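Notes, p. 3: input format for complexes.
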Amino acid sequence: MAFKRHVDRLPIIPAGAKRHNVTCQFCIVGCGYNAYTWPINEQGGTSRDENIFQLDLTEQQPADTDAWYAPSMYNVVKQNGHDVHMVIKPDYECVVNSGLASARGGRMAEMSYSEARSTQQQRLTDPMVWRQGMKVPTSWEDALDLVAKVTVAVIKEQGEDGLFVSAFDHGGAGGGYENTWGTGKLYFEAMKIKNIRIHNRPAYNSEVHASRDMGVGELNNCYEDAELADTLMVVGANPHETQTNYFLNHWIPNLKGQSMAKKQELLSDEEHAPARIVIVDPRRSLTVNACEVAASKKNVLHLAIQSGSDLALLNAMLTYAAEQGWIDEDFIAAHTEGFAAARLANSMSVEQAAEICGVAASDIIKATSWIAEPKSDGHRRRTMFAYEKGLIWGNDNYRSNAAYVNLALATGNIGREGGGCVRLGGHQEGYVRPSDDFIGRPAPYVDKLLIEGRGGVHHIWGCDHYKTTLNASEFKRHYNERTNKVKAVMDSVPSGDRDAQVEAILGAIRDGGLFVVDMDIVPTKIGEAAHVLLPAATSGEMNLTSMNGERRMRLTERYMDPPGQAMPDCLIAARIANAMEATLREQGDEAYADQFQGFDWQNEEGAFMDGYHQNAAGGEFVDYEALRAMGNNGFQEPATGLEEGRIVGSKRLYTDGVFSREGGKALFMEAQWRGLQAPGKQEQKDNYPFLINNGRANLVWQSAYLDQDNEFVTDRWPYPFIEMNLQDMDELDVAEGDLVEVWNDAGSTQAMVYPTPSAKRGETFMLFAFPTGVQGNVVNEGTNELIIPNYKQTWGNIRKFSAKPRSVNHLSFKSKEYPVL
Ligand code: MGD
Ligand code: F3S
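Output follows (821 residues plus FE3-S4 cluster):
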């Protein structure tokens, strides 16, 4: 049964509706949208002068018309306290998506807080404080006073290392340059907090340290390069489902041969053909299927390697390309160093790699020829190298990342049209903070320290470790124990006596307790353990800037009110700083109090000007007014100047061959294969029959923090799916929709069986970070040496515990693939 919204009539957008620039608040692609709002008692009409499209809507419109919107794109929200109609629809003029929506972005309107239409009623509207067994709404003053007093008391007793922080570092919803600056200024400038971690990993580090150490920033090309490439190579990513409109609007046209005119125009002196693609992924993802449909099987090479064996493959490809003379000697000599040593150290024969990776040697040779062999007219092949979590959260992050960048550098593909070596990314970026150099490398493994009982107070910004961390079972066990100790004492002291309350909380902390303050837009699983909840505003409820995967920066304009008393995170950070300053002055500690000055922004623009404008490269050319004028196409960072009031950006990085290292030369890195690197992984593989591969799915955004209150998603996925091979299902005696327990030495979780004919024997794929079955429960604590988690290499057992329950009965378990003709 298909999900129905039961909407039979929607208002026409009137000619006078307000139009706001919006960048989709979800994934890295950053599709352009517009939010249209107009008074609740008005509607547009069908004649040209009555509707925003200036069209006669009594006439049938073409199939791909812009004069249309879906029920999920409509809502009734508050603007300056009044109900207004709101439509958020994709922008046909935006070069990122050219009018395409995704199954996530197309629901931004219905995922907004609406009292009139009862959507997202889960949103936090007021500060809440633990009081007598429950969290009760309170004023900002009351909540901030408690937060400041406990935080200051812990710092006085344990030093700043007693304050633990988990914070978003991204753009889009729950982030943006305004908010990363607000939290960054608080924790890195006013204080020097070392025990801090990023939303999706247990330490404060880069996921692409190797690329950066080599002098290659990880977002170095532009989306047009996917249209110009002769070959696309993608390692450990599933862009059809996870970078959807980048894939559909820029990769697919090239695979279909629709970019030929553009190639002729921009690169006219070369031979051109529709692109081919090499996809490295242990499973057959929907991206493989979609590419085969677009480009036919002969132009798609799927290397279905053994989980975690990427490094061996990439080293063999470099070795083979060098042996064949397919590398770019001139580029290597002029712009890099360390090639000879890295080539020698990383040397791997095609046969060795075939053995380790479990793929045919001939396929490794074919892949190398597709990415590196010069074209028949003698021109070097243009190859775009892309990667994401299959590599980043895969085996031996640092070395695998290095081996991939080695390949891109050796073939001379960084800084040229149709090239680039880029992570595909997750969410948008919006990072601007004071220096974090004092944290050191490796950064502290914060989750482990929390498990060990360290720290006294924990500030959490838009993170839900209960769903999105590794070793999650153990983390939750310890965290609940520690936070319950504080809850118990808070129940025993009247909150009116603040000094006594703070003293009681400190007593519990000395006994191993932990006091938790959670800043979020919705109640989270970890938030259940918290003692204070502070409600944040999200994208569209505040002005918010971010950049996408080609460094395209835009301003999403505020188009609706935040719910209740919620406010932007940057202002929450400022108010915490103000309250800490006041507490310290009360205590007579003027010197420390002075460190908390400079947080007097009255709105998010104040934070932007203090942060990005003054600190980002090229920030001096960027302010809200200039960004508004740039609309949904924005500019590509870094800004280099202003011309006639328009910001001038940078289309690609490294076009001059000068890389981001001292001396300007890119570095080839030694990165030898060393098997499954993270502690405990090889033992797991030896001891358990099933690979529990895991990742994202098209409909679900992140940990489903908004989707959990959206029927469209919860109807389709009441439980996380686990894709299974049909023979494995027979042997375990499980059927479609059955609920199974997945367990191993790290913990256990549950999932719903999805029969998948293309799944290999003994290899499953489970939806990651879902509330009704947390995959992180079975991921062990093993990381790489820089504390990057290794989710993808997880092995476990599977057993059925329930036949298809009622909530699953109506679901389809058809193959998700399109037929390939
Ligand atoms: P994943 O599903 O995590 O997605 O985007 P992706 O990295 O594209 O993993 C990609 C692939 O890695 C999977 O197909 C998996 O089979 C493969 N893989 C597993 N093990 C290995 C291995 O050993 N080697 C190789 N080569 N591949 C392996 C993630 C990205 O998606 C992120 S980080 C975020 S934050 C965004 N989240 C998100 C979302 O929540 N939902 C949707 N629909 N899109 C999203 N986009 C972003
Ligand atoms: Fe949104 Fe576009 Fe991604 S619609 S979720 S930014 S593909």
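The two ends are 27 Å apart (CA to CA).
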